[in-house]
Amino acid sequence: MELRTVIIDDEEKAIEVLRGMLVQFCRGVEVVGEANNALSGLKLIQQARPDLVFLDVEMPGGTGFEMLETLGGGNFFIVFTTAYAQYTIPAIRAGATDYLLKPINMDELREAVERVKGKMHEKLALELPYEQYKVQITQQSGTMFVPCAEIICVEGEGRYSTLHTTGGKKYMVSRNLKEFEEELGAYRFFRVHKSFLVNCHHVLRISHADGGFAEMSDGRQIEISRRKKTEFQEFMKK
Q1: What does the pLDDT profile of the chain (238 residues) look like in tens digits?
Q2: How far is CA 74 from CA 70, 94, 141, in A?
Q3: Helix 38-48 / helix 64-71 crossing angle, nearest 10 deg
Q4: Which of 4, 17, 7 is nearest to 102 (CA)?
Q5: Largest Cα–Cα distance of the chain, in whole Å?
Q6: What domains does the chain contain, in order, with CATH numbers?
Q7: 8: nearest Cα among 63, 88, 73
Q8: Does an H or E element contain 79, and which?
Q9: Residue 194 CA to its chain's centroid (Å)
Q10: Which pTM does this prediction carry?
């Protein structure tokens, strides 16, 4: 899932720097437009229909807060970017997902984007039931859409993950396990181990042998880490 993103800031250099950081360090973000004042920002949001807006506070023609009031809400997430720390509380009251102080720190930017992704997945989960939601998988041969109901578990290894599905099919993709955890958590996927995310709909039994295993619908036995065991058992009761 690509986050359609716009940047609204009256400083061209600030736009250039933020765009570069997003492209280089934040996967799953597509910058679809930029604006340098409140009026052009309003028009851009209405035309581009973004998922995420990076919004400066002080700009010619009105502040970022005034711009949002004019819009009267919107179907997008907001991350304010400003050099002034005193706007933190107003930003929270305006419904911002995050607030970044300039100069923007790379790690804080990544965290903000991941936070937006998590909220985006929660939103999609409310719109699409488990039976209809599909996971997008991009490989060299093309893009596939795998129903999450067919995913038994996701196995992670560094920057790569393998989806194990019904029928014995496997799909390896260049995405880490944390990304899948954030995307599928709302559909009752649980991370039982640092290397495994399981679909609780496919868990047949929790075995207490050798510390604990999740027995899956395909016969696979997946180790449950000791620190996750109690939490997982409680989660399965829900």
Answers
A1: 689 999 999 999 999 999 999 999 998 899 999 999 999 999 999 999 999 999 999 888 888 888 888 887 678 999 999 888 887 777 777 778 899 999 999 999 999 998 998 888 888 777 788 899 999 888 778 788 999 999 999 999 998 999 999 989 999 998 899 889 988 988 999 999 999 999 999 999 999 887 799 999 999 999 999 889 999 999 998 8
A2: 10, 12, 36
A3: 40
A4: 17
A5: 66
A6: 3-127 (3.40.50.2300), 134-237 (2.40.50.1020)
A7: 63
A8: strand 77-82
A9: 19
A10: 0.63
* Other Cβ atoms within 10 Å of 89 Cβ, number: 9
Mode of pairing for the β-strands spanning 221-223 and 213-216: antiparallel
Count how many residues are written for the chain: 238
Please give the distance of CA 228 from its chain centroid, rounded to a whole number: 23
Centroid of chain to Cα 210: 35
Rounded Cα gap, residues 170 and 147, in angstroms = 13
Half-sphere exposure of 10 (CA within 13 A, CB side): 14
Task: At 48, list the tokens.
Answer: 């581009």
